[in-house]
Every structure is written in C-alpha cells, then in structure tokens.
Design goal:
- The chain has 393 residues and is mainly α.
- The protein has two domains: 300 residues, ABC transporter involved in vitamin B12 uptake, BtuC (Orthogonal Bundle), CATH 1.10.3470; 68 residues.
- The chain contains 16 helices and two strands.
- A two-stranded antiparallel ribbon has the order 1-2.
Length: 393
C-alpha cells in the first residue's frame, strides 16, 4: 500500500479524532494570522497555559463521566466550594498552605462520594443529581464564605497556579530545564508509540506505513519542542503545567490500560451488555463521581491560587466549558466514546478561540455566540459521523 493511500486510510479510519486535530491546526493558524502572530508569542503561550489549566483539569474528569453515559453539571460549584474551604483554612484560620490543599481535596472527595451514592446506589439520573448539586454546593460556598471574598492566599499557595521552574540548569535567554523535560517527554512518547506499533503488528492489526510513522513522530516532536521553546524563552516551566501533564498521563493510562477504564467504556457503550458481562456497574459509577470530585478539587485549588482569592461567584459556568471541551474533543453524546487526549484538544480549541478573540478585542457576547456555534457543530459532526458509519455497515 502506498504512503498516500495509507495516509488517507489513517485519516478516515477514525474521522472523529482526525477531524479534531485538523480543526485545531486550522483554528490556530486562523487566529495567529488575525492577531498578527501575537497568539503564538512566548508570553501569550504561557498565559494560555495559566488561564485555561483548570478547565483542562475539569475536562479530564468530565470526559470519563461522559464516556460512562452521564453528565456532571455541578463542577463549577464544586470548584467554588473547594476553593472556599481552602481559603477558610489558610486565610481565616492561619494554617499552613498545604493543610488548605488537603482540606480542599478532602471536600472534593466527599462531594464526589455524595453524588456517586445518589447516582449509583439510589438510581437517580446524574443530570438531576448534579443539577441539585450545582445549587447545593453553591449555597454551601456562600455559607462557608459568609457571602464575602477571602484574600490573599500566601505566596506558597499562589505558586501552585502562577509559579515557574526556571534556571535549574541555566541557559542564556532561555530555560534549559524546560527544554530537557519536554525532550524527555518526547522520547518517552516515541518509545511508547513504537511499542504499541510492534504490538499491533504482532496481532496482525493495521498500522501506518513505516515512513508515515516516522513522519508523525517528527511532526509531533517539532510541535512539542516549539511549544517548549516558547515557554523556555518566556518564564520557564509553569508548575501548573507539570500538574496537568501528570494528570493527563495518569488518566490516559487509567482509561486505556486499566480494568476500571475498560468498565467505564463498557457501561457507556452498552449498559445491558456490561451488566451481563459481570461489570459491577454501581461501583464503577460511584468511583466515576468520586474521581470527578477529586479533579474538581484540584481545579478549585488551581483556580483559587491563580486569583489568590476565594469568591462566592467563583467557577460560574466552568462546567459548560468542560462539557464543551469533551464534546468538541470527540466524546459521544450517548457515551462509550471519547479520550483524555481528545478532551485536551477540545479544551485547547476553546482556549485558543477565547484568547484569540480577546486579543482581537471582540466583545464577550460575540465570543459566547461563536463558542456556542462551535459546540453545536461538533455535536452535529458526531451525529453525522454515526450515520455515515451505520450506512457503511
């Protein structure tokens, strides 16, 4: 098979995922041109990471919920509540910053267990449970804060969202440590890709041609190292990017290579078949929401650390951004389909559009209209892709 034919097959084999990456590249190119290159400047690339990291963290948990056939409307309120708990512990009570982090994580786990109980063991649809949670946890936030904002957090806490690792290995006008970390990441990705390719060949599964495989790795390496260079020539490696990177790698492994991950896909893809196969549906559903509570707490910590304050209205509409990131990133409305990587790309598409339109001075109302249209088109593409696949059978 020729390289060109192989490339065409690679793109059409999973049209949903390949379309996301093509759309992402097109949007980046478009807004780079419209902003005169400012979008991809070192300072703005760093700001993109800092400004949208908590949405990407939420999207990791949300995509697992959506794959399992559920939805969570409460994550914005949980972000506010966990940030409020951290503020009370650290600012009002004067305890060390890490105690506030633990208190926030504990609160998120309790919230997840609460909602998981009602969904998994009582049988109330997640839409209703989390809608009630959105109201409940927002009300608790107001009570915890006594309807006032608490600020500022100590510098150690704020460093979680605004700190950088810079100068550990030196460098002249750039941070060598950032480049080394990303280079190690590329080597790890290349080795893992090579192992997966060998495994697929051993089981007689289709793979891309050798030259195309090498080209893919080279392109990915070039893009990643360019991104690393932008960070290295700005302020170095953001601490929040390390947190996000660890979470993405961990949850990619969980969803692709763990029993829990396979059970989540099975439940979302065909609940009846999963039950007949012996999947402990109630337990898996329960832990999906506990995990969502945990990641909402991490996002709440990052959100409050970035603003160095806990506010009663914090986190408003973050659940909509997280849900949109998942659907734009290829998750299916009916469940059973989606990836952590796709959710990250969907979140980045939202981030690039919001940031690019802000740089262009476009009114906030117009930004909301554009994002709404993009979400609608993403879901319409999902529906069309399913019809096309069904017709091809």
């Amino acid at each position: 098979m020729t390289g060109i034919a192989n490339l065409k097959e690679l793109l059409t084999r999973n049209l949903r995922q390949s379309g996301i990456y093509i759309a992402f590249v097109a949007i980046v190119v478009l807004f780079t041109a419209l902003t005169g290159g400012t979008l991809l400047g070192p300072t703005n690339v760093t700001n993109l990471v800092l400004q949208y990291s908590y949405i990407l963290i939420l999207a990791i948990g949300m995509v697992i919920i959506i794959i399992g056939g559920h939805i969570d409307l409460s994550v914005g309120s949980v972000v506010a509540l966990t940030g409020a708990v951290a503020a009370v512990v650290v600012i009002r009570e004067g305890l060390p910053w890490w105690v506030g982090v633990l208190a926030a994580v504990g609160t998120g786990l309790l919230v997840g267990a609460w909602q998981g109980f009602w969904v998994a063991y009582v049988g109330i649809p997640a839409f209703i449970v989390t809608l009630a949670g959105m109201l409940l946890f927002r009300g608790l936030t107001l009570q915890v804060l006594n309807n006032i904002s608490l600020s500022p957090f100590p510098s150690e806490y704020s460093q979680i969202a605004s700190g950088f690792l810079n100068g550990l290995l030196g460098g002249y006008g750039y941070d060598t440590f950032t480049l080394v970390i990303f280079a190690i990441g590329i080597l790890g990705f290349a080795y893992n890709s090579w192992r997966n390719r060998r495994a697929r060949i051993a089981y007689n599964q289709p793979v891309e041609a050798g030259p195309l495989f090498v080209l893919k790795l080279v392109v990915i390496a070039a893009v990643v190292m360019w991104f690393a260079w932008q960070l290295a020539t700005s302020r170095g490696l953001p601490l929040v990017l390390i947190i996000l990177g660890v979470l993405v790698m961990a949850y990619t492994l969980v969803t692709k290579h763990s029993v829990f991950g396979r059970h989540v896909y099975a439940i979302g893809g065909n609940l009846a078949a999963a039950q007949l196969s012996g999947v402990r549906v109630k337990r898996v559903n329960f832990w999906m929401f506990v995990n969502m509570g945990f990641l909402s707490a991490i996002a709440g910590i990052v959100f409050s650390a970035r603003s160095s304050a806990a506010q009663p209205a914090a986190g408003n509409a973050l659940e909509l951004d997280a849900i949109a990131a998942c659907f734009i990133g290829g998750a299916a409305v009916t469940g059973g389909i989606g990836t952590v990587t796709g959710a990250m790309v969907g979140g980045l598409i939202m981030a690039v559009m919001s940031n690019g339109m802000s740089l262009m001075g476009i009114d906030q109302s117009v930004q909301q209209i554009v994002k709404g249209i993009v979400l609608l088109l993403a879901v319409a593409f999902d529906v069309w892709n399913k019809k096309r696949a069904a017709a091809a059978r």
